[in-house]
TrEMBL record:
UniProt name for this protein: Slp/YeaY family lipoprotein
Keyword terms of this UniProt record: Signal
Signal peptide residue numbers: 1-19
Database matches in NCBIfam families: slp
Lineage, opening ranks: Bacteria, Pseudomonadati, Pseudomonadota, Gammaproteobacteria, Chromatiales
Species whose genome carries this gene: Thiohalocapsa halophila
Length: 183
């Protein structure tokens, strides 16, 4: 019985990939697509990263993304230690209009789609080869929120564990606070 409960708890805590991203894709990096675009054209990919820019044309929207490795749920990991060649830039191309206000710079985005080729655009004065993904699905990850409240303490007379707070700032429990030692 305890093993069943443990298994249920662990499956409930497992990272779940958004439904729109659950497709079979090729294990292909942005760098590999840049080096041999003809070999990989037509491959289904799942890439993600930080949004750099959004450009709207008359019939489509191009989102320029700084690629980052994905975790098991498909979320880009900006701080993950990986090989440098896994990073790069790509363009996620969507049919129709996407509002740039809803896709601000720095937000994390994951897309799935078909690799259609490579376009050369300038990054500063440097001509950069962008792999282009005709995106069929996207997931804009929510911004992380910082905790706003200090953790609750069971004894209201002690307050937070630093001097100067609480109703009696001159008294601190010696086992509670590392700063006050009466001996």
């Amino acid at each position: 019985m305890p093993a069943i409960i443990l298994a249920l708890l662990l499956t409930g805590c497992a990272a779940q990939m958004p439904a729109q991203l659950r497709t079979t894709v090729a294990e292909l990096t942005v760098a590999a697509a840049q080096e041999a675009p003809a070999q990989h054209t037509g491959a289904r990919v799942r890439w993600g990263g930080s949004i750099l820019a959004v450009r709207n044309a008359a019939d489509r929207t191009d989102i320029e993304v700084l690629a980052q490795p994905l975790d098991a749920a498909g979320r880009p990991q900006p701080d993950a230690p990986t090989a440098a060649d896994a990073y790069g830039r790509f363009i996620a191309r969507f049919a129709g209009f996407l509002d740039p206000a809803q896709y601000p710079q720095g937000r994390l985005l994951t897309v799935t789609g078909t690799l259609t080729g490579v376009e050369t655009r300038n990054v500063g004065d440097y001509p950069y080869r962008y792999p282009v993904v005709a995106a069929t699905a996207k997931h804009l990850w929510p911004e992380p929120t910082a905790p706003t409240d200090w953790p609750w303490y069971p004894d209201p007379w002690l307050g937070p564990p630093w001097p100067g707070f609480g109703p009696y700032p001159w008294y601190r429990d010696p086992w509670y606070s590392p700063w006050y030692r009466p001996w």
